[in-house]
Amino acid sequence: MTRPEDDPASVSVHSAFEELGRISFAEHSLESVLQTVTELAGRVLPGRPVTSVTILRERGPATVTSSGDLAVELDQAQYRLGDGPCLAAASAGRPAEIPDTRSATEWSAFAAIAAERGCDTVLSVPLPVQERLQGALNVYAQRSTASAARTREMVARFATYAAVPISNMYLYESAVERAGHLQAALDSRAVIDQAKGILMERFKMTADQAFQALARMSMENNTKVRDVAQLFVETGEFRSG
């Protein structure tokens, strides 16, 4: 009698889960996390799947990463239709599935497109809810020799595990980007305030007059106010171009 721990497929899946759990922010980017997920998916999942990540933004849904053109194409088809598993999973926070695109009764318009492109099964699993992030990990696969129930179980388990590092990495990179923008804004404000102070002292201007002078110089030279201020602070020169 074969024990579960002796089943090569089970051992492979368990090893993949352990590898997903070891992903470190310091050693990866969002792209490398997806590459890792893709490699693991190809290793342990039947049906030669391609994957993507959908994020819901104010201006509409977007595919932020994918492992292949087919995943992007099928994501985009759902965005155009305004309906489909990836949108349902991302917005409702529940897994959404098309077990067989050739006999689907739900999301039939999208299922027909997927079937035509050679995709037999679709599973979208929502990303863990964190802050204001809404999204889903999408798995598109061809039919395999494994049983349908076994395939769905493996894909569901893998997608649930993989969604965690993808979600965390996306939030991490977004936070770093926001922090960078904030620091740049603070640096700009500091140098502009410094330039204003010099103008106020040298030309006896008010704070508003000093800023207007910088803004006017910026427009005349088609240069950012921050760059005008930085050059003035560094050189002391203040001439219109």
Automatic annotation (TrEMBL):
Annotated source species: Blastococcus mobilis
InterPro entries assigned to the protein according to its UniProt record, in alphabetical order: ANTAR, GAF, GAF-like_dom_sf, GAF_ANTAR, WH-like_DNA-bd_sf
The ANTAR domain, residue ranges: 172-233
Keywords: Transcription, Transcription regulation
Gene3D superfamilies per UniProt: 3.30.450.40, Winged helix-like DNA-binding domain superfamily/Winged helix DNA-binding domain
Listed name of the protein: GAF domain-containing protein
GO terms of molecular function: RNA binding
